[in-house]
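Sample A.
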Amino acid sequence: MARTIAKDYDEKRVRILKTAASVFAREGFARASMNQIAKECGISKANIYHYYDGKDALLFDILETYLSELRDRVCNLHLGGISAQEKLHRIVFEALLAYEGMDNEHKIQTEGIPLLPPQQQDVLRGYQRDMVNLLSNVLKENAPRVFEGDKAKLRAATMSIFGMLNWFYMWNSKSDKLARESYSELVAKMTLNGIKGL
């Protein structure tokens, strides 16, 4: 007989994911245990195994949930009818908004992705690649002659922008929407005009 899904199944799953992300970020994936995660969730170890059969499955669900939602949020922005400069600003700002409250998930993706099976890594890197491609295309739109025929330069510029965004949480993780918008504007202006354009 099939197990009945509890009414609060999704709510518990989200709590497990958030708690596990916190434990993985604090302890490191290798040192963290399912017992520790269950304890911090306030549920039994047996209960957590109703959701995940081990740490690897839990790690993949954390990263798959985080990166797929981030990709959807950034790549589904409505960018029609606005300038290339405004497209850049909107992408950067939306990414910063999406990062809010996701410090643990953001931190563990660097350590976590290489620990997963290749097929799962491909799924997660696909989400990242979609965002990189979107930003790359907008950069080309802003400066077609700069990047024409030079994929290496375009990739370096694209990843440099993500670098500025990805480390934002380290020194400004508690920043509000206004601060994130201000920083996104700085990143966009610096990208388009250099520091003299600030």
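Sample B.
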Amino acid sequence: MALVCKIELSQTDGITLTVINKDGNITQTATFDGTTITHTCKGQDNTSTITQKTDSITVDCKDFIVNAESITCKSTKDTLHEAEGTFSINSTDKASFNSSADFDVSATSKLSMEAADFSVTADNSAKVTALTTTINGDNKASVTGLELALTGTTSASLKGATVKAAADTTMDVEGLTTTVKGQITNIQGSLVTLG
């Protein structure tokens, strides 16, 4: 493989270094014009460019790959990662996402979270709102609180093979119309008042 190498010097245009690979149809160019450093690798189908100015470095290419033992990226202001295709973050060890301010996660269609153990903790309040909300435990589901309120605007249903309601002090069952019904109905107590 024979290469054509050129060096051009100009007091107005700066320095241009060019390497031409005619067999591979590849031209490599580096220009230093006093304001911008531009590295260009142009092939038959694709072109990659690195443009460096005093306040910015821009990389334009088809595939951008970084291989390193460790990578640290810091910005004193904003950071943006955007993909028009699939955006993936994978870790074979622990992954952490921390924010000193608000942290928003949103999806236009579907948002899924999956783990062997899942825990959500809030110091002040936690709220789940949806058109339809389902909480399911294949073995057991528990809802606990210092005060517990279950409210249905139109109706509320509690159903199970066995249903037990117990209170340590006082239990009130009240309704405009109240029906207690069963094949066998037991009403027991040391003092029972009806009416």
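B remarks: The chain has a mean pLDDT of 92. The chain has no helices and six strands.
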